[in-house]
User: Fold ABC transporter ATP-binding protein from Xylanimonas oleitrophica.
Amino acid sequence: MTEDIDFEIDAEDLPQRAGERTLGSPSVIVDDLHITYRVFGGRRGGTTQTKTSLLNRAINLGRPDSGPITEVPAVRGVSFVAHHGETIGIVGTNGSGKSTLLRAVAGLLPPTKGRVFVSAEPALLGVNAALLPRLSGERNIMVGGLALGLNAKEVRERTQDVASFAELGDFLYLPMNAYSSGMASRLRFAISTITTPKILMIDEALATGDASFRKKSTARIEQIRDQAGTVFFVSHSLGSVRAMCTRVLWIDKGVLVADGDVDEVCDAYHEFVQGRKDASSGAKLR
Ligand SMILES: Nc1ncnc2c1ncn2[C@@H]1O[C@H](COP(=O)(O)OP(=O)(O)OP(=O)(O)O)[C@@H](O)[C@H]1O
Assistant:
């Protein structure tokens, strides 16, 4: 197991754990959730393919989306209840299903099986939010703001704040494909924090930008977290998870192997990635 654990972020720069906040009512209920991706390609004759008729194969010959379909079970039977007032870290090795789980809770992926109940519209805050490279920063702020539920007037009122938070200067009016990658990710972050959601989902957002922007963005996360009801935080940085979270879910190969106390789960996961323990060692923490 060669998972990298990033301890690079200075603990002093991190938002602190939400402390002894009393838990409120349930905000997210995930009940036996399964997410299976279906992708074109893969081994012909494999066990996960659907049958394509000879005629279809002949018609589709040469098309990139023709051929067998492979099913990738990314989340397998995950169940948990999150409450208002919790900051929940999600840890797991590469490809274990963390982002898929987050996207499913955010309503961006339909469950293959099982159900997700949310008490409010969750907002996914991540550096990977899709923006349109040919549009200016200003137009992207409008598109992003509308997508997050603001109306056009509200977005216009906040545009200068978003632009100055992202340190765009006059680049605000240039197409995003003229931005440096750091500038683009700062803008993504700034857009995704334009509102304060009741359920906030953060996917590796702390990795955004250089050290000074990271400090600023973590302060912004702390501010949002204090106002948001429930925060989910996917990260490979156990330092960040320990500093910020009040509970941790550990996902391995799509299965929830541990759900509980931050230090216990982080310690077990750390030992696991160091190759000292098997993933099943986390089961007792549930
Ligand atoms: N769009 C997709 N189509 C098909 N398979 C996918 C897709 N996205 C993810 N997967 C697969 O689903 C599994 C879970 O991926 P996911 O991105 O959720 O894991 P992760 O824990 O977030 O990984 P990482 O830490 O590398 O970001 C992996 O096997 C991955 O290859």
Remarks:
- The first helix runs from residue 54 to 60.
- The radius of gyration is 21 Å.
